[in-house]
Design goal:
This protein is an alpha/beta fold. The chain has 26 helices and ten strands. Helices cover about 55% and strands about 10% of the residues. It is a multi-pass membrane protein.
Length: about 800
């Protein structure tokens, strides 16, 4: 009996122990998952906080990765077996990173005659390499390794840079198309490619271990032969295979799953030859990607998907792993030697890059301040350099203090780059000339250049009608630049190649289809009845930005194209019942910022059926009105209306609001900041402008004329409301009126101040009147210096 009792008691104890163990293990796994998710979430949060400083993602990733992994509770929840799992994931991620980095580069640029970009890159690399080889052996960074091999590896690493980080930063800040931007990006790509290629070759011939025996030398020969064979196959056989895949999967058709799997398997096979014989997997992936064809649908698809996955999933985890490997608590911060070696690394990078760039650039005829800026930009390092430092720690070549110092130097090399770029922009802005770009000051013998912006296909019909009535005289006509306003997202950013600044390729199908639809619609209209006589010339441009930077980018575009008028769609869209929806806050922000900073005149179209009234042509008759109360914006609206008056398919009516001073309802006094002299000067300009319009169009019977004698803003409001439904389009000035008797108080209850008091009243009705409103504002000279051409020249 006792044994039976003992067994009955023991079995539940064992079961409870196993359950408890199961719960503890699962809780431990959940802790690790939470830590990794926290690394991602905190990194994105810090990046958002650093956005005003234009810091790249690597900055926030390093900060969060090192700080989060240094917390004792977090570090304690990752024992060795889980560290190994994270380490394997990181190694695989770096293999993908190196492969895509190589795939984006063109190795055959080396064999061409060196461009100025390449010369500057070679000079910066050579000076940094010589400086590092001279100084680093005396500072004892390595331990128990070949001094020659370690010095060469460290010197080559310091000579390189993170080209993809530099490219995205220059693109984001809109200086990539300038001469200094092209030079920096071109030199960065050359530098990155040469240094990584040198490391890949040096890994074979300069191993870290000392005292190699015959067996090790035979292994080195095998690795070298395997690497050469892999490179030859990738360079000679791969183009044939990839071209066959691309021909079987033309653009516009879905990729065949079998061909996609076959392509991925082939790429993996190419990159795995040398590692079978002991070669480094990351460097093998880079060499395989470097000699694979970078053109073609499969290659572009691979670059797009890999970059997107790396930026979203891999980088935060990578720097969290770096934090786990470093253990900041072991950093010897109290030793002067630690800070001395760290400072020496910074000095080597800075003096080497800036000195080489400066000496070489001066011989090429570049300016000294800009050469210093280029040299500072080329000091920026990337993810691969961090990985090399941590890998050296794993191999026992350096200690934790040295590895941490190298990571800190890499962090400091990235942090300063936005400051340098902004300094370049400020220097360039000082050279921007102030120009008067408005319809009133347009030379009659010159084409009107207009930037017509669209949020999407829903703006197509109204934009085409607006372009049609703006054409003016058949000679000289109009030049319309149609711009797509597309929000710059992280997904789009991840597919940008280092060499793709001039020709950005967007692979998102919805965006490409939308752009193609808009292009076809405009081209069809130009080729048909709309473009008869060649009066309208068309070009397509792209405004690819975040909503925060889109206003500045459109200013840059407007200055670059030298347009006199920007036409924007209202942020609210037309509903099926004819009313307006709540609108998009991002596009409203863009409109309001542009009104303050545009380098030319600007118009906002509130579409309430203008696009659905049918295409306006010479044989149609569309009723359009322009309201003139007075002020600079009304004069600009009248200048636009003078172009509309030339269109045979438009019946234009000009309505002038005049003050009825004899009315008993006229206010005795209106608060006005303008002096009497200013009011008289403005009234004189109004009379001269209107008299010229009257003589040109009304006197000959081309334009109908109507006068409204009003006493106050209440009567103004009543008359404005009465126009609903009578016209398909009403053109008004936004504001700028010195005499405010007729508009005083209208802005007290404005829903959309960006439309001005008159525009807000006309567009604020909830009825489905079908009357669209075009609000025009004269160029604001104060805001012109905020814009800067993307292709500015400062070198």
């Amino acid at each position: 009996m006792p044994p039976a009792i003992t067994n009955d008691i023991a079995t539940p104890n064992i079961t409870h122990y196993e359950c408890l163990k199961y719960v503890v293990v699962n809780f431990s796994i959940s802790e690790k998952f939470v830590a990794l998710v926290a690394a991602y979430a905190l990194s994105r949060t810090v990046h958002h906080l650093l956005r005003p400083l234009s810091q790249p993602y690597i900055t926030s990733d390093i900060i969060i990765g090192l700080l989060l992994a240094s917390l004792p509770h977090v570090r304690g929840s990752f024992p060795n077996q889980f560290n190994i799992a994270v380490e394997n994931a990181v190694d695989f991620g770096m293999i993908c990173y190196a492969f895509v980095l190589g795939l984006e580069m063109d190795p055959y640029e080396i064999f061409k005659s060196p461009t100025r970009h390449a010369i500057v890159a070679y000079a910066g690399m050579l000076s940094t390499f010589i400086t590092a080889c001279t100084v680093t052996p005396w500072l004892h960074y390595s331990k128990h390794t070949s001094v020659v091999s370690f010095t060469l590896s460290l010197s080559i690493s310091l000579s390189g840079n993170g080209s993809h980080i530099l490219t995205r930063l220059m693109t984001k800040l809109k200086v990539g198309k300038s001469d200094i931007g092209k030079l920096s990006i071109g030199a960065g790509v050359h530098s990155d490619m040469i240094t990584m290629f040198s490391l890949a070759v040096g890994f074979v011939f300069f191993p870290m271990e000392e005292g190699l025996n015959v067996k090790d030398r035979i292994k080195t020969i095998k690795i070298g032969v395997a690497l050469v064979s892999q490179t030859i196959v990738a360079a000679k056989i791969s183009p044939v295979f990839m071209n066959w895949i691309n021909n079987e999967n033309p653009e516009g058709k879905p990729l065949k799953g079998s061909h996609l799997v076959l392509s991925m398997a082939y790429m993996a096979f190419i990159c795995s030859w040398a590692p079978w014989f002991g070669y480094n997997s990351v460097l093998s992936a880079f060499m395989g990607g470097l000699f694979l064809p970078s053109e073609g649908r499969i290659s572009k698809w691979t670059i797009s998907k890999f970059n997107n996955s790396l930026s979203i999933l891999f980088y935060p985890v990578f720097f969290f792993w770096v934090g786990l490997k470093l253990d900041i608590s072991s950093f010897e911060a109290g030793s002067m030697g630690t800070w001395g070696r760290l400072f020496c690394l910074l000095v080597i990078i800075t003096i080497g890059k800036v000195g080489g760039t400066l000496i070489c650039g001066l011989t090429l005829g570049y300016n000294r301040p800009e050469l210093v800026a280029v040299g500072l930009l080329l000091t920026a390092k990337g993810h691969f350099h961090v990985y090399l430092a941590v890998d050296a720690l794993r191999q026992g070549a350096i200690d934790i203090t040295t590895c941490t110092s190298i990571v800190i130097v890499i962090f400091l090399s990235v942090v300063h780059t936005p400051v340098v770029v902004k300094h370049i922009i400020e220097r360039a802005r000082k050279r921007v000339p102030i120009q008067r770009m408005a319809l009133q000051w347009l030379d009659p013998s010159s084409k009107l250049r207009m930037l017509l912006c669209l949020q999407g296909p829903h703006n197509l019909d109204s934009a085409i009608n607006l372009m049609e009535i703006s054409r003016g005289r058949p000679e000289p006509g109009i030049f319309v630049h149609v711009a797509d306003m597309i929000e710059f997202t992280e997904q789009i950013a991840s597919v940008m190649a280092p060499g793709g600044v001039d020709n950005i390729t967007i692979t998102d199908r919805s965006i490409t289809e939308m752009r193609d639809q808009i292009t076809r619609a405009f081209q069809t209209y130009i080729d048909g009845k709309g473009g008869s006589g060649g009066a309208i010339k068309l070009s397509r441009v792209l405004a690819l930005s975040t909503f925060n930077t889109m206003p500045q980018d459109l200013c840059v575009l407007a200055e670059d194209l030298m347009v006199s008028l920007i036409l924007l769609p209202f942020h609210k869209r037309l509903n099926v019942d004819g009313t307006l929806d709540e609108g998009h806050p991002g596009f409203r922000y863009v409109n309001r910022k542009l009104l303050r900073n545009a380098p030319c005149s600007i118009g906002i179209l509130v579409d309430r059926g203008f696009g659905f009234a049918g295409k306006i042509s010479r044989s149609s008759e569309s009723k359009v009105a322009v309201i003139f109360i007075g002020g600079k914006d009304d004069r600009e609206a009248l200048a636009f209306a003078s172009r509309v008056a030339w269109h045979p398919g438009v019946k234009l009516t000009v309505i002038r609001f005049l003050v009825d001073k004899n009315s008993e309802h006229a206010p005795r006094r209106v608060n006005n900041r303008a002096s009497v002299a200013e009011q008289e000067e403005e009234m004189k300009l109004d009379d001269e402008c209107f008299a010229h319009f009257y003589e040109s169009h009304v006197a000959g019977g081309e334009v109908a004329y109507m006068e409204k004698h009003l006493a106050n803003s209440s009567e103004t409001y009543t008359n404005l409301i009465s126009f609903e439904g009578q016209y398909s389009l009403i053109i008004v000035g936004r504001g700028g009126r010195v005499n405010t008797v007729l508009t005083h108080g209208l802005n007290d209850w404005q829903q959309c101040p960006e439309l001005g008091p008159v525009g807000d009243v006309l567009s604020g009705s909830s009825s489905a009147s079908g009357t669209s409103i075009l609000i025009i504002q004269l160029q604001n000279i104060k805001g012109q210096l905020d814009g800067l051409s993307e292709e500015f020249s400062i070198m």
